[in-house]
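We examine the record.

___
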Amino acid sequence: MTKLRFGIIGYGAQGSTYASFIEQGMVESMDLVAVCDIDEAKQAKLKQEFPSKKIYSDYKDMIISGEVDAIITTVPHYLHPEMATFALENGVHVLNEKPAGVYTKQVKALNEFAASKQDVTYAIMFNQRNNPLYQKIKQIVEDGDIGPIRRTNWIITTWWRPQPYYDQSAWRATWGGEGGGVLVNQAPHQLDLIQWIAGVPTKVYSKIKHGFRRDIAVEDEVTAVMEYENGATGVFVTCTHDLLGTDRLEILGDKGKIVVEDSKTVTVKRLKESENELNENMDMEDVKRLFMGQMNTEDFYSTETFTEESAWGEQHSGVLENFARHILHGEELLAPGAEGINGVRLANAIHLSTWIGEEVSIKDFDDDLYLSELNKRIKEEGKFDLQS
């Protein structure tokens, strides 16, 4: 097999984008051979657009057809684990769209099932892991350039969404239809990146506002404080009502600091001695001269600034290509599916902390408590079936 026979489930904005990438030759190791959508009007359009491809109305029919080697799930979040499990069960490789699911209990079940299927690959569409900017930042941290991490701060409020965005469909911004707001829709990549780069926190405490500036049931304003195993702390702030928007990530270490502006420009300051060493060795005369601006800062640290350009489409198409090359040639996966639970668990913990008014353990997260609290909110909506 020289190319992976690929099927797309759900032909909305994301599914059609992936189809265009493959058809334009941006994913060399894939052939798009099938598309599935439950909408009859879309099916008719697909048959015109792709006369040589198989068009399905039922994802199960596509998976068991023998026509596809792998699929991607560009469908509502709650369906990701269900479809992925069915595909893996039938020997079809899965690239799950983010998030891996809505709540940890269903994602854990998917991960356990995927782990039992050694002959098929399970990956997740964390396209930001294919962003050269974040790859370089991760390498700087792993190389120890800024020392052990002391604090992370990410304010990411560039998700402005007006009320018509939420009103366009009945499932959007609901607990039963979407499973949450900004944390499950707009911010999953940042929730993944902060853990991919800085490590998985152990605890979180949050203040969430539900329907704060929009007429919705779910969260549109989030402030979360995280704690790490080594005592480091982190702050994560996001919302969907800031038209002017800010995107600023800071990672402070014992030996330096990384600041990322607008996910484009990175400034890295590397201390020539660790802060611990400076604190121990500096006398009061040095302190006075420092405070009075009489000491050369270059004696203390170096500064590097860089930008990394990523052409539109390269990140997503790169994950698609990596997924295909892993299956065909054994290339290492950029985003193993099992790691999808980290972002889901952090989002769940942030939700739960506000719901119960307490700090929540991520290390010993209570899957059943979260599901119980989620179902309370789904029941109050009165529009959707409860989750199990």
Observations:
- The chain has a mean pLDDT of 96.
- Residues 204 and 226 are 4 Å apart (CA to CA).
